[in-house]
Specification:
By secondary structure, this protein is mostly helical. The chain has one domain. Helices cover 53% and strands 11% of the residues. The chain has 4 helices and 2 strands. Helix 3 runs antiparallel to helix 4.
């Protein structure tokens, strides 16, 4: 049975302090030098991503940030 490497990146690779990241998201954060392991919450990681961006085009970081914000809304917002 052959394992698809791209599919493996979509599995959860990190789950601590309410932060859940896939391998793909981790690869993107690592590429920008963002140390998600030091964050104590999803909100802190989102803020760190926002501070890491400048006026350039960061579609991949925007994608990770949007995923985290959506997760945070549906799992941590009291409705």
């Amino acid at each position: 049975m052959e394992i698809d490497e791209e599919a493996l990146k979509r599995f959860i690779k990190y789950q601590k302090k309410g932060i859940i990241l896939t391998g793909e998201e981790i690869d993107i954060l690592d590429a920008y030098g963002i140390d998600y392991t030091k964050c104590i919450s999803v909100n802190e990681l989102i803020s760190l991503i926002e501070r890491s961006k400048d006026d350039s085009n960061f579609d991949d970081l925007d994608w990770v940030e949007a995923n985290l914000a959506e997760f945070n809304y549906y799992h941590n917002t009291h409705k």
